[in-house]
Design a protein that fits this description.
Enolase-like, domain 1, 40% helix, binds 2-phosphoglycolic acid, binds zinc ion
């Protein structure tokens, strides 16, 4: 069960941008993993190493990250026992030696960390979710609740809508029922949008959600359309919740300390009041990144006002970083973690981020990135740690459906 060779190659993500895919070989098995990438990234995410000075792929190539895997990392980890995940992850951190993984690149490090766990699961002839559950001492399994982004705004589309994601939250116990409702609501939404805004408005954004060409700029418009789609598809609001990922970093003006949406500027407290209105009007159950990541006072006040009535989700605020999560728990900035493996860079640290959050009674959402690959590692991760929610995008586009489909498959393997 020793590592014999580690080899990385260049593949493309769903935006057509290069990313890294790594293979970890043992005597009898191979495990691989390819790495996602964000568009609206938090300021303190682990460092994604790209060839910023090369003309190849318009400065976005990952040849340095690939080289780091194929040389230094391969040399250092050769001969390691593949089941020693924590030791391997710690060795990667030591080898990098920086706080944000900027020497070797978090993309390089994560690709190895995840591929090691797949090779280990293969060695034990175990499905990946089961191996991850073993690593995290978890014996409980339930189907996660999906948050599905069916209208895309912000930096994920060319639309005039500021909020990045309008999410439906099917509240069914079984993932099969959740997937069915998502698909049906998605198609009834497509019909509504096509009739009201024309067929070109049914083109989709980075995460598979529609990007309607709204004539008037109003963040309520998508919510109105989605409520109608839920009804048209035959579902009730009791069965289907609504959520937002505002990704407020992307519409905050740091100089003026104002948020720009609905064609006007909002102060932090005006925006807070606006959110309270939306929550009431549309029965919103989950709000992610409602404020700029450094506007901590606003986070705190908002969390105090809504208490545990909704999920206040930290994404850019927390960047899956155990130290930032601990700080947010003690200062009550939010009550839920968005867990993105590439924000922190190893499996061990990701599990740590999860465990710290659960200990504080937070909810945890395992999430994709806007730049994804067909790799569905995060489905096994979510199921293996018994995450409360998953955020995998719309029920369309292969890189998104591959994650939902893997959840369906896991159910079949398990039964
Ligand atoms: P990103 O967006 O992958 O572009 O960061 C996803 C999110 O903000 O949740
Ligand atoms: Zn987000």
């Amino acid at each position: 069960m020793e590592i014999k060779e580690i080899k990385a190659i260049r593949v493309l993500d769903s935006r057509g941008v290069p990313t890294i895919k790594t293979f970890v070989k043992t005597e009898n098995e191979t495990g691989s993993a390819s790495i996602p990438s964000g568009t609206s990234a938090g300021l303190f995410e682990a460092y994604e190493l790209r060839d910023t000075k090369s003309k190849d792929y318009f400065n976005l190539d990952v040849s340095k990250a690939i080289k780091n895997v194929n040389t230094v990392i391969n040399k250092k980890l050769k001969g390691k026992f593949v089941l020693d995940q924590e030791d391997i992850d710690n060795t990667l951190l030591e080898l990098d030696g920086t706080d944000n993984k900027s020497r070797l690149g978090a993309n390089a490090i994560l690709s190895v960390s995840l591929a090691v766990s797949r090779a280990a699961a293969n060695e034990l002839s175990m499905p990946l979710y089961q191996y991850i559950s073993r690593l995290n001492n978890n014996n409980n399994f339930k189907d996660p609740t999906p948050l599905s982004n069916i209208i895309n705004g912000g930096l994920h589309s060319g639309s005039n809508i500021a909020f990045q994601e309008y999410l439906i939250i099917p509240k069914f116990k079984e993932i099969e029922d959740s997937v069915k409702s998502m698909s049906e609501i998605y198609h009834s939404l497509k019909n509504i949008i096509s009739k009201e805004y024309g067929p070109s408005s049914t083109n989709v954004g980075f995460e598979g959600g529609f990007v309607p060409n709204f004539k008037d700029v109003n963040e309520e418009n998508p919510l109105i359309l989605i409520e109608k789609a839920i009804k048209d598809a035959g579902y009730t609001r009791k069965e289907i919740g609504l959520g937002l990922d505002c990704a407020a970093n992307s519409f905050y003006n740091e100089k003026e300390k104002k948020y720009f949406l609905n064609n006007k500027n909002y102060s932090s407290s005006e925006l807070l009041d606006y959110y309270l209105d939306l929550i009431k009007k549309f029965k919103i159950k989950s709000i992610e990144d409602p404020f700029f990541e450094k506007d901590k006072k606003a986070w705190q006040e908002f969390s105090k006002k809504v208490s545990s009535s909704i999920n206040v989700v930290g994404d850019d605020l927390l960047v899956t970083n155990p130290a930032l999560i601990k700080d947010a728990i003690s200062k009550k900035y939010c009550n839920s973690l968005l867990l993105k493996v590439n924000q922190i860079g190893t499996l061990t640290e990701s599990l740590n981020a999860f465990n710290i959050s659960k200990k504080a009674n937070w909810k945890v959402i395992v999430s994709h990135r806007s730049g994804e690959t067909e790799d569905n590692y995060i489905s096994d991760l979510a199921y293996g740690i018994n995450a409360d929610y998953v955020k995998f995008g719309a029920p369309s586009r292969g890189e998104r459906t591959s994650k939902y489909n893997r959840l369906l498959e896991i159910k079949e393997i398990k039964s």
